[in-house]
Amino acid sequence: MLVRINTAPRMQIDGQLAALAGERMSCCEFRYRRGAEIFGEGEEPEYVYQIISGAVRTYKLLPDGRRQINAFHLAGDMFGFENETTHRFTAEAIVETNVHLMRRTSILEAVRHGGAGTKDLIKFVTQNLQHAESHMLLLGRKTSLERVTAFLIEMDERLQHPDVMILPMNRRDIADYLGLTLETVSRALSILRDEGLLRFDGNTQRRLELVDRGALAKIDA
Amino acid sequence: MLVRINTAPRMQIDGQLAALAGERMSCCEFRYRRGAEIFGEGEEPEYVYQIISGAVRTYKLLPDGRRQINAFHLAGDMFGFENETTHRFTAEAIVETNVHLMRRTSILEAVRHGGAGTKDLIKFVTQNLQHAESHMLLLGRKTSLERVTAFLIEMDERLQHPDVMILPMNRRDIADYLGLTLETVSRALSILRDEGLLRFDGNTQRRLELVDRGALAKIDA
DNA sequence: CGCTCCCTTGAAAATCCTCAACGAACGTGG
DNA sequence: CCACGTTCGTTGAGGATTTTCAAGGGAGCG
C-alpha cells in the first residue's frame, strides 16, 4: 500500500514541519493510493504528515459502521500529530496523495528541549480545536442546507476561491463530514443549483462553480 | 456581576495553573452568580480560569439564537485559554461558581521562555481537542437516546460514579450540548427511567441515580 | 400566596433518512 | 479503443425520528 517515491527531502512546503522539528528533522516522501489507509484509530503514532498533493479524510467509526469525518486535509495541511500513545482516528487518502512525513519523536524531542517549534505546535493543535468547535456548532445546530452551504464556503476558502472548485471527495464523504446522508447532500446541492447559487461544471458532479457567493454566505447563517 | 471574595491565593487545587505559569503566577479568586457571564465570544482574553466549585458552560451562538454548548466545566477544570486575541465562545456560570483566575499573559510568557508548563499547556489543548472530536461523533452520528446516555456516562465518570448524580444544568443546557431539543432530552430520560436504567432521586429531576451502568454503556454504542 | 422557572407529556408537523430505481462516469481488461 | 462491471450521483416515495406547539403540574422564591 505504501510506496516510497523519493527519499530526498523536498524543501518547498515543509516550513511548518521544519519549524516543529527545530530544522533537524528526518523527512521522507510517500505516496498513498486512492482509498489507502495512512494510519488507523488505535494504532501507535509513528509519523506526522504534511500533504504535498492530494487529499486526506480523518474519521471515527461507531461499532455498527456509522462514520464521522472530523476533517478533510488538503495540499499543505499537516495532520496526524498525537500527544498520546495511540491515534484517535483513522486517516485515509481520498485520492492519490503524496505526503511528507517525519518522526513524531523528533517533534516531541524538540518540545522537550524548548525547541523553536513549540509555539507552532500549540498553534497547530489550537487551530484543529478551533475547527472542531465550529464544526460542533454545525453538527449540533445547523439545517442540512446550511451544512452543505457551509461546506462549500469552507472548501471555497481553502482552495482560495477558484473559478471552478474541484472536490476530491464523493457525496458520501461530504455526508459523513456534515452528519447527513449522501442523498440529503445531493438534494441540498440540487436546491442550490436550481436557485442559481452554483453550477455543475461539465458533465461531472465533482467540479462546481459558486455563482453567488454572497447568497451562499447568507444561507450559512 | 463580578465579586471578589478573597485575594489570597489558595493552593489546594491550583497545581495545573501553577505549572503553566512556572510557579510565578498572580492568582485571585472570584465568584460568579448563577447565570453570570464570565467572558463573551469575541472579547479579548485576559484570564485563564480554574473552577474551585460550581459549574460553567461554554457555547457558541448562531445569529438567530440557536446555541451549541461545547463543554461543561466542573470543579477542578480549567477553561478559557486562548492562543488568539479573542475568545472563541462565551462562558457562563451555570450555578454559583468560584474560580481561580490568572493572567493569560503570564502563561504566554512562560511558554515563550520555555517554561515547565509548556507541555502541560499542549496537553490541555489536546485534551480539549480530544473531547471535541468524540463530541463531533456524537453530534453527527448518534441517536437521541445514545446522546443522552453518553451524556449520563460522561457526567458519571467526571463526578467519579457517585451514588446520586446531582446535575448542575437544566434540560435546555443538556439539549444544547447534545444537539437536541429539551423535550427530546426529557423523553429519552423518561425512557431510560421506564426501562429501569436510572431513577430520579426524590421529587427533583436534577438528582438521578444510574441503576444499570452496564446497560447504559451498551446503549452508548 | 404569587410568580417564575423547570420538567414532562401529548399531538401534529417538519426534517431527514431509508429504500429503490435509474442514468452517467470511471476504470479495467480484453 | 471498446465493452463491461463498478462506483457515483440524482431523484422519488414512503417512513422514522426529532422538532414544534401546546398544556399542565411541581418546585423554589420572594
UniProtKB/TrEMBL annotation, chains A, B:
InterPro entries the record matches: cNMP-bd_dom, cNMP-bd_dom_sf, Env_Response_Regulators, HTH_CRP, RmlC-like_jellyroll, WH-like_DNA-bd_sf, WH_DNA-bd_sf
Domain HTH crp-type: start-end pairs: 142-214
Any single Pfam family the record assigns to this protein: cNMP_binding
GO molecular function, one term: DNA binding
Highest taxon of the lineage: Bacteria
Protein name stated in the entry: CRP/FNR family nitrogen fixation transcriptional regulator
Cellular component annotations (GO), alphabetically ordered: cytosol
PROSITE patterns: CNMP_BINDING_3, HTH_CRP_2
Gene3D superfamilies cross-referenced by the UniProt entry: Jelly Rolls, Winged helix-like DNA-binding domain superfamily/Winged helix DNA-binding domain
Transcription as UniProt keyword: yes
Record-linked SUPFAM superfamilies: cAMP-binding domain-like (SSF51206), Winged helix' DNA-binding domain (SSF46785)
Domain Cyclic nucleotide-binding, residue spans: 32-80
